[in-house]
Amino acid sequence: MTKSPLYLSDMRPKFVPFEMDCGKISAYRYNRDLASELAAGTITREEAVAILEDMLVIREMEEMIVKLRSGAYEPIRDYNYRGPTHVSIGQEGTAAGACCALKLPDNITSTHRGHGESLAKGTVAIRQMTDDQLRTRVPNCPSTRHEDLLESALEEHVYRTICELFGKDDGYCRGRGGSMHIADFSVGHLGANAIVGGGVPIATGAALANRYLGRGSVVCCFAGDGAYSNGVVLESLNFAAQAQFTNHLSDGVKGGLPLIFLICNNHYGMTGRCDDEVMGVERMARRAAGFADNNLHAEVVNGMNVLAVRDAVLRAAKLCREGQGPVLLDIDCYRYWGHSLSDPRNEYRTKDEEAAWKAIDAIETYKQALLGAKVLDPAGLAAVEKRVVDRNARAAKRAVAAADPAAADVLKFMYTDTTCATVPAEFASPKLIGPLPEIKRVNGELNYKDALKEALVQEMVRDQRVVFYGEDVADYGGAFKVTKGLLEAFGRDRVFNTPISEACICGTGCGAAMNGLRPIVELMYFDFALMSSDQISNQAAKWHYMSGAQTEVPLVIRASAGAGKGYGGQHSQTLESMFCHIPGLYVVYPATPYDAKGMLKSAIRDNNPILFVESQALYGLKGPVPEGEYLVPLGVADVKRVGTDITLVAWGPLVHDCLKAADQLKAERGVSAEVIDLRSLVPLDLETVLRSVQKTGRCVVASQAIHIGSYTGEIASTIQDQAFDYLDAPVKRVGARNGIAPQSHILEAAFLPNVNDILDAAKSIL
Amino acid sequence: MATPIIMPKFGQMTEESAIVEWLKKEGESVAKGDILFTVETDKSVMDVESFEAGILLKILVKPGVNVPVQSPVGFLGQPGEKVPELVTSAPPPAAAKPQVPNPASLPSPTANRPDTVASPVLSAPSPALPPVTSAPSAPARFRISPRAAKLAADCVIDPAPIRGSGPNGRVVEKDVRSYLAAKGYAALRVSPTAKQLAAKEKLNLLSITGTGDSGRITVADVERTLAEKPRPLSKMRQIIAQRLTQSVVTAPHFFVTVEVDMTDLVKFRARLKEQGSPLTITDFISQAAVLSLKEFPDVNSSTDGRPEHTLEQPRSPRPGRLPGTGTRSAGHPQRGRSDPGRAQRPRQRTRR
Known about the structure:
The complex is a heterodimer. Chain A is of the alpha/beta class. In chain A, strand 12 (586-588), helix 20 (593-605) and strand 13 form a beta-alpha-beta unit. Chains A and B meet through loops of A and helix 1 of B.
């Protein structure tokens, strides 16, 4: 056993005057050129040519998009492209320069203007592949020569990229993602993101996974200057730079996150200037000074010089691999076109400005460098250009002819049916750093809280990839002490506190889940899920589908629902109905200690993202919980009591109110009520509900959520739709009043649903 | 482009009409003014002529189907022209009939003013909608749960007489079951084919007398019941029935029995008949009535019954044309163009 991981702060007041030194951030420090790099051996002639080719591939493809608008792209003149036109023409030096500094297993995340990064990560990775790896990408290539395999793989890469833009089944994401969500997980591309800033916490989580798993891989997070005013991005900078990753608190894995925050600083959000209009700093790089004493090794880099970008990213990646990440790079570049092709640009900038940037075009200046360094002669240069143009044309023609996805498959890839049935050997025997927390059983019973803890402990013992983090969950054991003792057993590598950054907590969970971990994150109050709703709803829920099932998101978000404690409007909400409306997400809500343990274990092993709702009102509830291994399947309702006259459907705390109501109905009126605990809202066990209603002919659906938009409505509507002929009365709904949870005990009692509400509803239809 | 043939609107209040017969077949040529089809209206059967010449390309509405007026019933055009696919032959649902708004349901001018629009139900203070109850004056609506209705349908019985024990008197499953028990439904014997036929014809098994072995209801029993089942009246018969009833209800009737020695009259009539004037006894009675009415004009008048209104007398009573007295009986459907409700004059009916 190692030393206790508990951290008892011993901070003393210290009010000695001093001046804070915010350090220096260098700009444009690259002072070499191609010739000197060749001479120094820091680049080979083949690498130098490949960089040009990478940039040309990007420009050729994006100019195709531009030309398609007017039917001017000769190879597929008549193709009607429908989709986004966020071209990055002008920024090729940034994309190609950064990607050529990365290794095949390194990751990237990208943006809605991410064709460049996507193409360059692919071409660079393909050139790094062995012949065997190439053959898996192009199994139909008739040749076995390396050059032919490589050329075939490069064409296939462009083809699959264009297919994705065109929504074809051969696209990287099977036509589910398109231009703004393109991803190729096989080369570490974790996805472009159409939510500005949305990919940054995913990159942070992916880096967390790389660090924890000791992969030595770096994540390069491409995001625009506009994104660096976004809350979750600032949360991510802070999250990534946490002291506990590098200071005395880190005992197992040591070192900062291997993460490069690469700002594609083209100086415009959509149309608004970032650095002269909507921010208070002239240089984006200054952002770094707010998040780490080392200023995240920030630099400003000339993005119009592809070699300067390459140099900066090489050095950043090296720092990351040495455990000194994260690094922030402010790449100064320019977008020649507008936000999209429907943006004429003349409302917000001058033609002279554009001309000045085009005069130092990254591709044209690099061509001169290649000629000047005699890496290529003009004929060689023309040959490279022709190769790219021809290859892209072939790929585009093939893409136009490629098959569309079958309309019947519109919902394919919504959910995965896979679970972690067996743990890979390398993760099956995690190291414990202390004794497992003691969980006291009385007569075979545990309370709901301890049942959850037992599930967490068992799953963390089972699988080293299971990590757990959230606000105040480590030393303190969480606001409700659900996780007290986990830190002592598993150490800070696997159980740690986070900053108060709910969006980033869920976003990093999503990124880590997409990159090899099985994280559990905690939202102290369900209400805070609204802070992270983009990361839950647009990211975690959607990536399995949007990637065409390239990735799975085995993430559990534990959300603790308040209510009944006089905590008022922002700590008492029951919000699962909102998230049931988000496709791609599982939403479950156990009502008993037995289910709490069995369902949490199932959720941790499931490969879908799961919103796991717990009730603070139930934390103290005692019930039988077997000590050993058992799973409660998700998507299976539990008939708590069999009855014949009326069906009471509920979830969460209302299950217990329904049981009490059933007792009273029996005692007062001799009515036999069947009580169903749904347990899982998505997926919903409709069959059990319908079977019961078919028997009883009457139904009350109850939850603690307020009436408007409650999932009870969805269930009631489905019952009348699918069991209309079995109904002897309208389906009734019970929920909280259509209001805001009040603090006053009197008001809150009037606000929340109770046994009498269920009885009234039942009696009104009996 | 094919021209739609439109169901005409024959009356101000006519909302729907049914074609009695198409006089042209699909593909037949039509001259301008040719009769395309006949329509049964509230009052009679009307001919509908074609406004244009061409070919009857398509019949959308078969005879006997009620469709909203001013909706297409077919298409006229040139040979080979395509018929638009927008129209279905089935009458549109009730919601799709706004062409003929009921004046009573038109909103009053103030109801359209935006400031009088009710706030949405989402407003927090009064979120609960009032329970749906029918207005006290409206006749009690027969309420039955879907489950009970399905059970009744499965048993091929009419649930209308069942007393409901549910909220608002709703008939629920258990009411149907006790009704079935009370009616001895379990003992009812019915052949499967007979049950199927009865279900199809929406008959009530409980009202069919079985004549098979041990009272078993057979197909023959169902068919007999079906033959006895009241059939719906045509629009015209409905109107005739309504108006005849109306004339009885709105005119005061009294009955006097008088014995009259008609010997001379019979002789006189025989003589006239020989001379080639075959008058009936009724004609003489009518003439007597006319003469009496001239002498007592108060009897030949109408009133709405209110004291401030004076009697209103027709300027020239038309002898022999009193309603209900001639051979042109208003109740005769084939020749019944006369509308008994039009003339509401007092009548004296003499019974022999």
